[in-house]
Amino acid sequence: MRSNIAAGNWKMNTDVEFGLSFIKDLHDKGNHDNCEVIIAAPYISLKSMVELKSNLGSSIKIAAQNCHLEPKGAFTGEISEAMLKSIGIDYVIIGHSERRQYFHETEDQLLAKIKIALENDLKVIYCCGEPLEVREAGTHLEYVADQLNGSVCQLSQEQLSSIVIAYEPIWAIGTGKTATSVQAQGMHHSIRNLLAKTFNEDTASSMSILYGGSVKPANAKEIFSQNDVDGGLVGGASLSVDSFYEISQSFPG
Ligand code: PEP
What we know:
This protein is an alpha/beta fold. The protein has helices at 16-28, 43-56, 81-86, 97-102, 107-119, 132-137, 140-149, 181-198, 201-206, 217-224, 241-248, and strands at 5-9, 36-40, 61-64, 91-94, 123-128, 163-167, 209-212, 231-234.
């Protein structure tokens, strides 16, 4: 059985104090038996958030938003996956469209990052998704299949158990424009078919595939009710405890 996941991505928006009070307030709202909850915070907040959630006995998982693809060396300003593991990080986001767009990360580099994350026992949220012009040209399924063929589909079946896929149409990220539940389901179904063809049905049906792109309390229920949508990767709406909590409570009973 695959897990339902509510993951927040704070991007470059929060400080240490915010991270600590968010974890405490989210923990105080009660347990999250219905889904796995993950928060991807800026690097500077990670260690104190891990310590706090451990002290609280909270099941919230803490994620980094990026990592470097080399294990160590002369890469000024970078953070390695071993460093993340050493402070108790659970997940790392790899391939967010902002990293692809602004930092020119290629599929080969993303695959290298995924492999080194797995070697360090980190789980990966791998992001994929098409720009608007590709959606308008009607070639979005092929576009995302190419991204997956160059990355996740290169892994072994065993490695896939540590991967969560997040489908994030770029035209819906931070724009307030959400894919319809039919558009999300269509892409998620296509991704699951590709996994079934590349690996097998069991592997494909055991993988969590999240939708990302302007998820908010008002649309989460509808999106999460789709057969192949196992939760969300949430940007803007994860910056408020109340709205993120409501999203985490939006899975079908
Ligand atoms: C994201 O950051 O991955 C994202 C989907 O952002 P937003 O929810 O703000 O569109």
